[in-house]
Specification:
Length: 669
């Protein structure tokens, strides 16, 4: 629902300039309620360009809060949008220091009551946690959406010590973002000089990220899990199960020492009032209760809510996308980890998953390099984009499967399953992928959760070692948190594979993974019903009126899989055309599109190839600019081969080009 009437009229200041101590000028948009009373301010800092990048979501959210008495400042971080400087990398200490200075500046303004909050989704959720750990005095509370506390283990770069292909897609996206010109309507005639300076400093961030394949000091910086006690302010953590960052919510609830609340719904990588799949919730009403409690001192009842409000997915067959809503219902836990949840261990027996161990034959799997295709995309965006996991029967056929008998009653699972495996391998470098599936009576297999581990990292992400070939060893693997009801008559399946393409970059050689049946277990988090579940209620989703927009060209999303039977090469082509639109209130026209093409031969992991392309065009004032980036990744036995190319254009003519090719040694990845 779009709300059009608010308690306060809203004043918009754009640009609001903030000059830092080193002379860097930072651009912001401020929405402030018109009132003689002093009000708090909530800060969001991301590099995605407030005027023409995130404007649609910003206008949905920040004016709504301002209309209810909470000022909001949307900041272009250093080197992005209309701000001075260079955006050298993500989550740098300099960015966190800038945030502390900006918070101090805003808290001292005459209209501010001295209390500041920080919020954001993804990048903005990350830096909200990072800045909270620095404890600027005016920062009293944060709301962090779709973020992480661990930059190495649970971000877009590595998972379980294995390389995520999403890293290169992300770096290509950032290559374009960094290369775009500031808005002449804001910065004036210096826009071209600023643009030229940015272009000269732009290169692929993958060169940095691939240089750190272990969990070293580079990743520890900005990972608040290194010291949860550093965060003393109040924290609300929000995410959705279809987003790849949902693990951070239960971890924060477990480890943060201060006031905290968690909400995990059915959504993908979006705010809960405007994303997909639904059902959506009145997220802004929850945020308002939070900010009024911590920044104004009102008793809004927010801290009487259950600690953990969580969506439990109901019975639904797997689909490439879910519109409009997921099946399921809300549940509540007042403690996390919850003492109510039973840790039920099942043994991996030759006959399937059983309550008692039954020693038997050694079972083996040798997955082709194409295994993993139907498991969806790391970081899927939901909505109409077909990147969710589909029926897993093809994947199950390429793995080693252990099933329960049909369930006698419905079973609710909430938390992270854990594996304790006794395995042996025939190669020193092996990736393990474990999937937990809900198997319907007709054989349909729905992915509930999964986890992966580079077995060289079985003891340490900092000091990996080769697998002991031919010698059994123990592996412990925690899968992603999830919540789901498995209906009576269904079976639970644990499927093990040693490939997970295209989510993971494959190890150099195919391998055989063996499990001694009866000597391994999976722990399931079984949740009993709770009367507290009835206390979970959200108001209907609301937003402010949208930014006035004229759609000039519609967009589309495609996922096309091609199998060349003769060569054995499988190709996955993802295309997202985001269309072309004009933001009428600021006379800016934008268009963008990206494509990701991943190919591999089932018998040759070294044939893996990723080509990702992103294009973004913006016309505003005197500037009519476009950036196009292409990144390609391949690998041989010992090295990754990374190449990238960037072109910047003004009115269709190339004004800048840059490219590089790098060979980066594989470090157990």
């Amino acid at each position: 629902m779009v709300r059009t009437e608010f308690p306060f009229a809203v004043e918009t200041v754009d640009p609001l300039w903030i000059t830092l101590a080193d002379g860097t000028r930072i651009a912001a948009t401020l929405w402030r309620p018109r009132t003689e009373n002093k009000v708090p301010v909530v800060v969001e800092m991301v590099p995605y360009r407030r005027r023409d990048g995130t404007v649609a979501r910003d206008i949905d959210i920040h004016p709504w809060l301002a209309g209810h008495g909470i000022a909001c400042a949307r900041i272009d971080i250093r080197g992005s949008g209309d701000s001075d400087g260079d955006l050298a990398d993500e989550y740098l200490p300099r960015e966190q220091e800038d945030a502390c200075e900006i918070i101090t500046h805003l808290a001292a303004l005459a209209w501010c009551n001295g209390n500041v909050g920080m919020t954001g989704i993804s990048w903005g959720g990350f830096n909200a946690l990072q800045v909270a750990a620095r404890r600027p005095p005016a920062l009293k509370a944060i709301i962090t959406n779709c973020a992480t506390d661990d930059r190495y283990a649970d971000d877009i770069h590595y998972m379980g010590g294995a390389l995520l292909t999403e890293q290169e897609m992300w770096s290509n996206f950032m290559l374009v973002k960094k290369a775009m010109a500031p808005d002449p309507q804001i910065v004036g005639d210096v826009w071209r000089a600023m643009w030229t300076s940015r272009l000269a400093a732009t290169s692929s961030l993958s060169e940095i990220w691939l240089a750190h394949q272990r969990r070293d000091d580079y990743w520890r910086q900005g990972s608040v899990c290194e010291d949860f006690s550093a965060i003393e302010c109040a924290v609300m953590a929000v995410c959705g199960w279809e987003d790849s960052y949902s693990n951070f919510v239960p971890r924060l609830l477990e480890h943060l020492p201060g006031p905290k609340l968690g909400i995990v719904g059915p959504w993908s990588h979006a705010y809960p009032c405007r994303g997909a799949p639904g059902p959506l919730i009145g997220y802004l009403q929850e945020a308002l209760r939070w900010w009024r409690h911590w920044l104004v001192g009102e008793d809004t009842g927010i801290m009487a809510e259950p600690l953990y409000r969580v969506w439990v997915t109901g019975e639904e067959r797997p689909q490439p996308f879910y519109l409009p809503d997921h099946a399921g219902s809300w549940a509540a836990e007042d403690e996390w980890p919850s003492p109510r949840i039973e840790r039920r261990s099942l043994h991996l027996n030759a006959s399937g998953l059983g309550a008692e161990a039954a020693a038997g034959a050694t079972l083996s799997v040798r997955s082709p390099a194409t295994a993993g295709r139907d498991c969806g995309r790391w970081g899927g965006y939901g909505g109409s984009c077909p990147d969710m996991p589909i029926d897993q029967r093809r994947e199950d056929g390429m793995g080693l499967c252990f099933d329960t008998p049909p369930l006698d009653d419905d079973l609710t699972l909430l938390g992270a399953p854990e594996l304790d495996l006794l395995v042996s391998v025939d190669q020193p470098h092996v990736n393990l992928a474990a999937r937990l599936c809900d198997v319907y009576p007709d054989g349909t297999s729905a992915l509930m959760t999964y986890g992966v581990l580079n077995l060289s990292h079985r003891d340490s992400h900092q000091h990996p070692t080769p697998c002991p070939v031919g010698t059994p060893f123990r592996v412990r693997l925690k899968l992603n948190d999830f919540a789901r009801i498995v209906p009576k008559g269904h079976r639970i399946r644990l499927a093990l594979a040693n490939q997970h393409w295209p989510i993971l970059w494959p190890q150099p050689r195919l391998s055989t993974l063996s499990v001694a049946s009866g000597d391994s277990t999976v722990m399931l988090p079984v949740r009993p019903p709770s009367e507290r579940d009835r206390d979970v209620r959200f108001e209907p989703a609301e937003t402010a009126p949208p930014v006035p927009t004229t759609t000039l060209d519609e967009g589309f999303d495609r996922r096309i899989v091609t199998d060349d039977v003769g060569s054995g090469v499988q190709t996955i082509a993802l295309t997202s055309n985001h269309g072309r639109r004009r933001y009428d209130d600021r006379a800016i026209t934008v268009s963008s599109a990206n494509s990701d093409t991943m190919s591999i031969s089932g018998g040759d992991p070294l044939s893996a190839k990723l080509v990702t392309e992103y294009r973004w065009a913006i016309a505003s004032g005197d500037a009519d600019t476009e950036a196009i980036a292409i990144t390609e990744l391949t690998a041989d036995e010992t090295h990754f081969n990374l190449s990238w190319r960037l072109e910047a254009r003004e009115r269709g003519a190339i004004v800048h080009s840059a490219s590089a090719s790098r060979r980066i040694r594989r470090d157990f990845a």
